[in-house]
Design brief:
The chain is an alpha/beta fold. The protein has 18 helices and 13 strands.
């Protein structure tokens, strides 16, 4: 169905970099009928109503560029953001995950997002100078606390799946004992009994200081991998919030993680578009941005597409679930809360006057991004910080945050009104 599009009536605009990711997001959202817009123009997109888990409805716009990467994503994201004025600019899809912290199928929520290849080459040495876009601390916490066990793509590993997982780790030259996904495949009290069954079956044997594959074990896992052309339908995947680095090239270089961790010690994911999404949201003053991407490989020489379809679907499921929690009417309603209007002007004046030397600490505690604090008027930062919180209905956060920075005097003053 083709319709006109009313300006400013979309809660979330989702950009998917590839057609497979676009189709996964469309399927996860669920509506059978999507309205198509601008099919003959530069920014075709579709819209639908998404029913959240708490019974609310979000208006969703979905689009994709013709080419992945920041240069392909930027124009369509900017055009549609200006047209639709969403509350949140979002993206789901696939990424490479840090092999020391993630497993294929895991979903990474960008917090922060940045371009890893921004900087300067001097004498053959690259000096990184990335602009990082932090995530709202409340949204980061929601991602950190998110339990994916209720999602359709999540499943508890069976004994057989655990056995295949273990054999594949040995086959890939990895240590299953220290693998980040071990506890998901071997819950407490299952490690020894499951390994004993594999050993008694002749698939592994003890050698030197560890268990290794036998010929039978190698044959079994090679056959299992050969047969797995469609990839998994369900996995015991986890959701992590952490740094996501964007670059202009698809990486197949196992040493990339060591190089990039020099500048970002806790880097979780590599991909090509997250920083563009965050940049467009910042430049166009979109209230929120959110990027969730599923790990399809580790950017190593053994990368393949076995987990690509799963990663695209799982990331879409996580994205929509988080949006359903975070884009509630209370979270998106503009203007100050009723409590904020009850704070007498004299009390507000007293607070902002006495925050002259502590406003930066307070901004850090309540999660004001650095690119926002740079916009505050010089010499009037406490008042700007108050306005920033009021515009988001968050003045009620002030008493607790003031206590956290040691300003109990101001916290006690505000508790009479907030």
């Amino acid at each position: 169905m083709h319709t006109g599009q009313r300006r400013g009536d979309v809660d979330v605009l989702i950009i998917a970099a590839m057609k497979q990711e676009y189709n996964a997001a469309k399927a996860v959202a669920g509506p059978e009928q999507w309205a198509e817009h601008g099919v003959d123009g530069p920014a075709p997109h579709c819209t639908a109503k998404f029913r959240t888990g708490n019974g609310q409805t979000l208006s969703v716009a979905l689009a994709r560029p013709t080419k992945m990467g920041g240069r392909g994503t930027g124009p369509i994201a900017t055009t549609l953001t200006d047209l639709l004025r969403p509350t949140c600019l979002a993206m789901c899809g696939v990424c490479a995950g840090n092999p020391g912290a993630t497993a294929p199928g895991d979903v990474i929520v960008a917090a922060p997002a940045y371009e890893w290849d921004e900087g300067k080459y001097t004498g053959g040495v690259f000096r990184a100078d990335p602009q990082q876009f932090p995530q709202d601390t409340r949204w980061t916490r929601a991602a950190q606390d998110f339990d994916p066990s209720g999602l359709p793509s999540h499943g508890v590993a069976t004994d057989e799946e655990a056995a295949v997982w273990y054999l594949e780790r040995l086959y890939q030259g990895q240590n299953p004992r220290t693998h980040p996904a071990r506890e998901r495949y071997f819950p407490p009290s299952t490690w020894q009994t499951r390994l004993e069954r594999l050993e008694s079956g002749g698939f592994i044997t003890w050698a030197d200081a560890g268990l290794v594959l036998t010929d039978a074990g190698r044959k079994r896992i090679k056959r299992a991998l050969y047969a797995d052309v469609d990839g998994p339908e369900r996995l015991p995947f986890a959701v992590f919030a952490g740094p996501m680095a964007s670059g202009s090239a698809v990486m197949s270089d196992p040493e990339i993680w060591d190089r990039l961790e020099v500048g970002q010690r806790k880097l979780l994911a590599l991909e090509m578009e997250a920083a563009t999404i965050a940049t467009v949201a910042h430049e166009r003053q979109v209230p929120h941005w959110l990027v969730a991407k599923g790990v399809m490989d580790h950017a190593d020489l053994d990368k393949d597409d076995r987990f690509k379809a799963f990663a695209a679907k799982a990331s879409a499921e996580v994205l929509f679930a988080l949006l359903g929690k975070l884009l509630s009417p209370a979270a998106t309603s503009p203007g100050p809360t009723p409590a904020a209007r009850e704070v007498p002007g004299q009390v507000k004046l007293e607070v902002v006057r006495r925050l002259t030397y502590d406003w930066q600490d307070l901004a850090d505690i309540v999660g004001v991004p650095s690119y926002e604090t740079r916009r505050f008027r010089a010499g009037d930062e406490p008042r700007e910080l108050w306005a920033w919180l009021a515009a988001r209905g968050r003045l009620s956060d002030l008493p607790g945050a003031l206590e956290d920075i040691g300003r109990t005097d101001l916290a006690d003053l505000l508790r009479r009104y907030l």
